[in-house]
């Protein structure tokens, strides 16, 4: 019999950013790896300092909600958030954003049709130099705005 991985949602608290949605929590899917640790399974749209594959420690409250209390293991993956410029050449197309990054073998999730922010995961060992060049080119050419939600030492040195 195979061991089933227990999937849970781990919640993160953060200070809402001015000019963004009035959110102060984000739930990320995770796989339990210990009694109070879990490996993040998706890219965060709002939480900084964590990437898909990272291991976080959590505490479970009296309602059974798992709250992150810190990152305890880095996967080396990076989280990149890309928002297409509605008046730019890509319009509001999250699919066009995905298409530009597909040659690098990276993917991600779309927040919503109304707000087509794409949260991408760039795995450790990716062509960070090429990805950075594409991000800068896209911003300079009015395709998108981007930010790093979580970056490794390898990302910064590429």
Write a brief caption for the model.
The protein has 158 residues and is α+β, with helices and mostly antiparallel strands. Helices cover 16% and strands 37% of the residues.
Structure commentary:
A hairpin with a 5-residue loop joins β4 (55-60) and β5 (66-73). This protein has a five-stranded mixed β-barrel. A four-stranded antiparallel sheet has the order 7-8-6-9, with helices on one face. 16% of the residues lie in helices and 37% in strands. The model has no long low-confidence stretch (mean pLDDT 95). It is α+β, with helices and mostly antiparallel strands and 158 residues long. It contains three helices and nine strands; from the N terminus they run ββββββαββαβα.
Q: Tell the overall outline.
A: globular
Structure class: alpha+beta
Order of helices and strands: EEEEEEHEEHEH
- Portion in beta strands: 35-45%
Provide key terms for this protein.
158 residues, alpha+beta, 4-stranded antiparallel beta sheet, 3 helices
SSE map:
Layout: E1 7-13, E2 25-34, E3 37-40, E4 55-60, E5 66-73, E6 78-84, H1 94-101, E7 107-110, E8 118-122, H2 128-140, E9 144-150, H3 153-157
Parallel strand pairs: 1-5
Antiparallel strand pairs: 1-2, 2-3, 3-4, 4-5, 6-8, 6-9, 7-8
